């Protein structure tokens, strides 16, 4: 998974994904007085409160309309069954519903069994190369490098590489400033021209000397114990080829969209990736924080750097592609909930939809790649979880257009029935996300799960069909934002 962003001093603000004061490095995050301010709970802004109230009023209205229009729903149901396409569509949706329910129950079972691997002792920690690619990040890269340098990891086992990918701003200046402060603890490089994140990472892989490669986005902040927690699975599990970090939203107190995404990220990582990890089959290690076994990387490095899609060089989805190629080798890919990285997310609609388009295109491409080996004997251990999660993603892609057509038909024929049933569905299905976040963190922030579902359903529903139709298009999309 990748994160787009604009990071600044807001990492001093309160974050509901809450880093405890003891876990922060005061020399980087500020003085004791400042860290105390970090944990002062802020009330929801008037606008945010208005959004939450409007969300619940809409869902309540939806429930009321569904109750009042029961006869109309029954009539629509009978008309649909009587139509030529209605009954087959109903059968398919029923099968998919029970399938999705089964996947959810299986994922819940795996989640309940999941436990993070605790950090091993200093003498057992492997040598580690951290690669930080940067493009037009300005001072943000300084913040990232400082947080990494303050990590609780044996300095003699740590190699820190920062690579400026042909930036047009003062990124290189801030890398030089970091070099001046950290000395031999960091090595900086400058690409002759912007070639893309994949090529910057490739240079880091080729220069790295560590047993483990760690990639960190240059707009992200790690906790003090993140690195040691991230790489410990490689020590205790020799079949581990890659590890995904736990990405949380840093700027979730600054704008409405980050508040929503904060809840969504917790569900995506702490529930879904925990389940995938228990099956040894995390499908995507996020660009914000990931670790890879050196041998696993070099086994697929030529294929990865030369990857194409429909005859065009792949310049997106480098994290998902690397994960796919490591899974294909038979390695396990795990998730460490205790390896936390804080990253900013887009605060406006344009930045958000562009980020989602890029992620969705990558998802389409890599599902096609995974289809080539998912049902082969790609590893000795159980392949059930990997295959089930792959099928789940594939079915969502395959059914995108049929459901879009049905939705449009429903809107044209029965707009009120569509609106009311959709609002009821959001209330029901988002409640699990809300309860999960409330259990893990805070109740007050958990209600953004409903607002996010409402926002996504009515303003971002077009992302998936558009990404499928344009999967071959190149471009990072958000670099100019």
Concise account of the structure shown:
This protein has helices at about 25-30, 30-40, 45-70, 70-80, 85-115, 140-150, 170-180, 195-205, 225-235, 255-280, 295-305, 320-330, 350-370, 385-400, 400-415, 415-440, 445, 450-460, 465-470, and strands at about 130-135, 160-165, 185-190, 210-215, 220, 240-250, 290-295, 310, 310-315, 330-345.
Largest sheet: 8 strands, mixed
Tally of distinct domains: 1
Strand proportion: 5-15%
- Order of strands, widest sheet: 3-2-1-4-7-6-10-5
* Secondary structure tally, helices: 19
Distance between the termini: 19 Å
Helix-strand makeup class: alpha/beta
What overall geometry do the principal axes of the alpha carbons give? globular
Oligomer description? single chain
Number of strands: 10
SSE arrangement, N to C: HHHHHEHEHEHEEHEHEHEEHEHHHHHHH
Helix fraction bin: 55-70%
Description:
The protein has one domain (1-69, 116-126, 211-481). The strands form two sheets. It has an eight-stranded mixed beta sheet, sandwiched between helices. With 481 residues, the protein is α/β, with parallel strands linked by helices. 55% of the residues lie in helices and 12% in strands. The longest helix has 28 residues, at 86-113. Helix 4 crosses helix 5 (86-113), helix 8 (197-207) crosses helix 11 and helix 12 (318-328) packs parallel to helix 13 (349-370).
């Amino acid at each position: 998974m990748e994160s787009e962003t604009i990071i600044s001093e807001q990492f001093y603000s309160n974050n509901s994904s809450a880093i405890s004061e003891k876990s922060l490095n005061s020399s980087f995050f500020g003085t004791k007085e400042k860290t105390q301010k970090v944990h002062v709970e802020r009330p929801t802004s008037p606008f945010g409160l208005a959004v939450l109230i409007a969300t619940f009023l809409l869902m309540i209205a939806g429930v009321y309309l569904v109750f009042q229009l029961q006869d109309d729903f029954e009539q629509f149901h009978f008309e649909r069954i009587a139509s030529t396409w209605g009954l087959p569509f109903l059968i398919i949706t029923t099968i998919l519903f029970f399938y999705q329910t089964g996947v959810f129950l299986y994922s819940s079972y795996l989640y309940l069994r999941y436990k993070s691997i605790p950090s091993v002792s200093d003498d057992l920690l492997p040598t580690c190369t951290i690669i930080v690619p940067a493009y037009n990040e300005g001072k943000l890269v300084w913040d990232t490098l400082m947080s990494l340098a303050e990590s609780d990891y044996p300095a003699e086992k740590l190699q820190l590489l920062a690579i400026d990918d042909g930036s047009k701003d003062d990124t290189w200046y801030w890398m030089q400033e970091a070099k001046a402060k950290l000395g031999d603890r960091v090595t900086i490089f400058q690409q002759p021209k912007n070639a893309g994140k994949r090529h910057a990472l490739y240079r880091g892989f080729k220069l790295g000397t560590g047993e483990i490669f760690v990639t960190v986005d240059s707009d992200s902040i790690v906790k003090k114990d993140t690195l040691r927690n991230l790489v410990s699975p490689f020590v205790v599990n020799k079949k581990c080829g890659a590890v995904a970090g736990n990405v949380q939203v840093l700027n979730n107190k600054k704008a409405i969209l980050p508040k929503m995404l904060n809840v969504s990220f917790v569900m995506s990582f702490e529930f879904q990736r925990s389940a995938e990890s228990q099956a040894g089959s995390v499908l995507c290690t996020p660009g914000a924080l990931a670790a890879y076994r050196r041998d696993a990387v070099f086994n697929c490095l030529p294929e990865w750097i030369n990857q194409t899609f429909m005859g065009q060089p792949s310049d997106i989805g480098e994290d998902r592609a690397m994960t796919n190629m490591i899974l294909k080798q038979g390695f396990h890919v795990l998730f460490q909930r205790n390896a936390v990285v804080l990253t900013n997310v887009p605060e406006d609609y344009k930045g958000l939809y562009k980020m989602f388009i890029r992620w969705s295109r990558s998802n389409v491409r890599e599902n096609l790649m995974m289809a080539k080996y998912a049902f082969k004997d790609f590893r000795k251990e159980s392949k059930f979880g990997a295959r089930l999660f792959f099928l789940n993603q594939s079915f969502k892609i395959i059914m995108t257009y049929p459901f879009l057509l049905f939705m449009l038909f429903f809107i044209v024929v029965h707009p009120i029935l569509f609106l009311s049933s959709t609002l009821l569905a959001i209330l029901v299905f988002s409640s699990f996300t809300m309860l999960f976040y409330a259990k893990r963190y805070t109740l007050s922030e958990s209600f953004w799960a409903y607002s996010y579902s409402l926002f996504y359903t009515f303003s971002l529903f077009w992302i998936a069909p558009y990404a499928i139709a344009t999967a071959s298009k190149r471009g990072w999309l958000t670099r100019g934002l």
